[in-house]
């Protein structure tokens, strides 16, 4: 990786974060753009309410580089510059030790470990909700979203979905718990946003990813 990155001209993060023009709207514009959507800064709707109109939801997290990689979605990071001022940037890709970020709709190439010096773990990402999803799915639940869950599990195991299943039974719970354990998630059988993000990734759903498939490694969530 060191040889690959040796020829890259890195941008200086301190310079990027020192600008006074950094604004929240541009960060969300780039985040929405990765999903092929438009963020309208002139509406009174928040970014999350706008996302909901595209069957997307916001997920606010406090974590580290490992958890950011594990979620594997573009995200808006809250950074703090040397003057103690908050700046929002959008991270759109991570390739080994190199990250692409956007500030004021301008792309920059930065070293991941340098970026981490200005970041205290706060990030927000968008994730795609299944149809009929309202709240976390738990064993014993029933409804159309359970059939979606079964279909994802079958796809991941390279099996064709059989009959429609609308009840979250003990057998399905075993499969969900095994999936969660395999991917370093809390293995409790409860299917919330983080488990759904991993299901979407592993089932091959076409969604924007942070890490290119060629260099994707399973990273346990921190």
What's the helix and strand layout?
Elements: H1 2-5, H2 13-18, H3 24-34, H4 47-52, E1 56-62, H5 65-71, E2 75-80, E3 86-95, E4 98-103, E5 106-111, H6 112-116, E6 119-128, H7 144-156, H8 170-182, H9 193-202
Antiparallel strand pairs: 1-6, 2-3, 2-6, 3-4, 4-5
Description:
With 222 residues, the chain is α+β, with helices and mostly antiparallel strands. The protein contains nine helices and six strands; from the N terminus they run ααααβαββββαβααα. Strands 1-6-2-3-4-5 form a six-stranded antiparallel β-sheet, sandwiched between helices. It is elongated, with a radius of gyration of 19 Å. The protein starts with a helix and ends in a 20-residue tail after the last helix.
Specify the number of helices.
9
The H-and-E topology, N to C, reads as HHHHEHEEEEHEHHH
Level-1 CATH class name of the largest domain:
Alpha Beta
Radius of gyration from the CA trace?
Answer: 19 Å
What profile does the largest beta sheet have?
6 strands, antiparallel
Mean pLDDT: 90
CATH superfamily of the largest domain: Cysteine proteinases
Q: How many domain modules?
A: 2
Summarize this structure as a short list of keywords or feature phrases:
9 helices; six-stranded antiparallel sheet; Cathepsin B, Chain A; alpha+beta; disordered C terminus; Muramoyl-pentapeptide Carboxypeptidase, domain 1
């Amino acid at each position: 990786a060191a040889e690959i990155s040796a020829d890259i001209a890195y941008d200086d993060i301190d310079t990027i974060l020192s600008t006074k023009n950094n604004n929240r709207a541009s960060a969300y514009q780039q985040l929405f753009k990765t999903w092929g959507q438009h963020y309208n800064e002139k509406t009174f709707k928040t970014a999350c309410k706008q996302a909901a109109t595209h069957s997307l939801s916001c997920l606010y997290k406090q974590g580290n580089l490992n958890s950011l990689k594990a979620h594997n979605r573009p995200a808006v990071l809250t950074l703090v510059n040397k003057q103690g001022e908050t700046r929002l940037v959008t991270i759109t890709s991570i390739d080994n030790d190199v990250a692409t970020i956007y500030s004021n709709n301008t792309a920059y190439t930065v070293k991941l470990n340098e970026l981490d010096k200005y970041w205290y773990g706060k990030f927000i990402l968008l994730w795609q909700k299944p149809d009929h999803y309202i709240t976390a799915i738990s064993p014993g639940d029933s409804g159309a979203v359970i059939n979606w869950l079964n279909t994802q599990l079958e796809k991941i195991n390279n099996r064709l979905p059989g009959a429609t299943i609308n009840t979250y039974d003990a057998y399905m719970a075993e499969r969900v718990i095994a999936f969660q354990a395999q991917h370093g998630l809390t293995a409790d059988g409860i299917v919330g946003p983080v488990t759904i993000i991993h299901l979407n990734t592993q089932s091959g759903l076409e969604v924007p990813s942070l890490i290119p498939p060629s260099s994707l490694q399973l990273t346990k969530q921190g």
